[in-house]
Give the backbone structure.
Amino acid sequence: MTDALSTPDWMTEKGTGDCQCLSAGRIRRESAVQKTIMGLSRAIRESVFSEQIAGRPGLLQETDPRIKTIGLLGLLITTSFLQNWYMILALYGLTLVMAFASSISLTFFVKRVWLFIPVFAGIIALPSLFNIFRPGDPLLTIWDFGGEVTLGPWSLGTSLAVTHQGLKGAVLLILRVATSVSLAVLWALTTHWADLLKALRVFLVPRIFVLILSMTYRYIFLILGLATDMFTARTSRMVGSSSPREDRRFVASSMATLLGKSHTLSEDVYSAMISRGYTGEPVTLHRFRAVTGDWLWLGAIFLLTVAALGSDRFIG
Amino acid sequence: MHIPDGYLSPQTAGGMWALVIPAWYWAGHKVKSTLSSRQAPLVAIGAAFTFVIMMFNIPLPGGTTGHAVGGTIMTIIIGPWATIMAISVALVIQAIFFGDGGILAIGANSFNIAFIYPVIGYFTYRLLAKGADRGSSRRWIAAGIGAWVGLNVAAFFTSVEFGLQGELFNAADGSALYSPYGLATAIPAMMIPHMLVVGTIEAVMTSLIYVFLMKTNPGLLDNYDNLNAQAVGSYKLKPLITGIVLLLVCTPLGLLATGTAWGEWGTEKIGKEIGYIPEGMGKFAGRWEGFLPEYAFPQSEETVALEENVAKVDAPVSLDGVWESTPAYLISGVLGLLLVGGIALMAIRIITGKSRGREQLD
């Protein structure tokens, strides 16, 4: 009886190193399949977290979604027109103030904005700092060639230098990207997704598109769930590692299977909609009400936009 | 490929919106005419599917990973028009909720990824797979090539949009205001990796998905053809009405024509042309006077002017007369159209035995 319940010897024995998956020191945690599972679950986590922030009391959360959408979009367009980087920096400061007033942790907000997109913009803009890619007045000469250097048909000039114009352009690009992302993040973080999509009606987005957008957002999570299950099921049946070739085949066949499943799902949803009386004309409920505070907020944003664009032209 | 905000000047971003809105309108119209009320769930779930598969990491040789869009395979299954809408919706959600791609850049991103890519991909596939049997390997090869060509054409458009910033939008001191590179840098920087890697992933994945579906779910590959077949026989009034309104607007052009429509000669003209008036014609002519004779108000100055013009059949009509008689001519056209339309509608209601009541739900 005791023997039957005890762990067999081969399971308690320590490996002597034949197990390739452990001895290499690096378990294939970062395989494409694993990476996908992580990515899928991160998307779900982020959305749930956004909804939590949207539910907190705060400046932007309490603004009428339509007014907020117009205001933030106005600022976004202003950001795209500004040519002076001080002005863009001032607008970036404003996004931080708005985030603070909307009870969003500043560390979280800054991290969420800066990680990836503006950093990526910096990498993209990096070559443009040098006179080889964009001509300009040298600010810092790195390497004097001592004469003109040519590379086939291209002339590299007489020296390699960081230019004044290159630096200015790169700073402008990074700040503009970061401010734009901040405004978009503020919009998405402080609005419940259902309200946000309904607020799009202000911009004369047809009702059918708003319906499709909300259905998409809802079904993304169902399909994310289906995909996570497929990938987890596969990983749980795997011992050791698989080759990239095998993984590619697996990813392709999961996509194809998911495509079939999604199609069946859309047919089912259609039948369900028809059975509940859907005629092709979507119905939406309006429950937004703009109060004096909302209009004041919009007025302030409008004045700010005019002031920013005006002083940008003035400073030049 | 997803352009964030800040890279494109507002002028470019606005211009791309102006290009993509008609494309959306056109696609929406096409989808509505083939799918009717089925469009909402099909497009929405197609968009959700696209969104999710864009998150799938595909292992590349060398240990890195990339991702696919799946646009071409979608067009084969739900058709190019529904795909344009589905990918656009996925891009809007990515931009708004997940910060992937800019909000002002939705126009540009949708034009490149949701319009150019699927349309070029689909028509390349159709061209190459034309006449191929079901199960023939030409089909999956065509799907892969379609994906490669479509994606690269889309990447080319993107690189031109980027390159224009460096060419056109610079400050007075020569520093860049938006994306800093000109066309000569932006095009090769975008095209080389897309032609070698990104397009190749898209092509390989599209072919693999196609082969998998051929083996396991061949019915799905015929889905779009079946939908089209179902749509045959259903008719929509909107394009017809658009056409009629367009023709109506063009009616004053009729006044510019010289002479009378062939075969619609009056007795006077017949007599002039053939030398005599046939007996029967002479007998019946003048028996019927129209409600608006010669498409003008009776006894008005326009009638006289028009009659004079009609009488001078071979002489070109003077433009002054045209502008004077246009309102009467146009009103005649509208009245005629309303009359014919009204009779046709009444006939339809009598034949089908029901009136088409439209419920206003909102």
Q: What stands out?
A: The first strand of chain B starts at residue 58 and ends at 59.
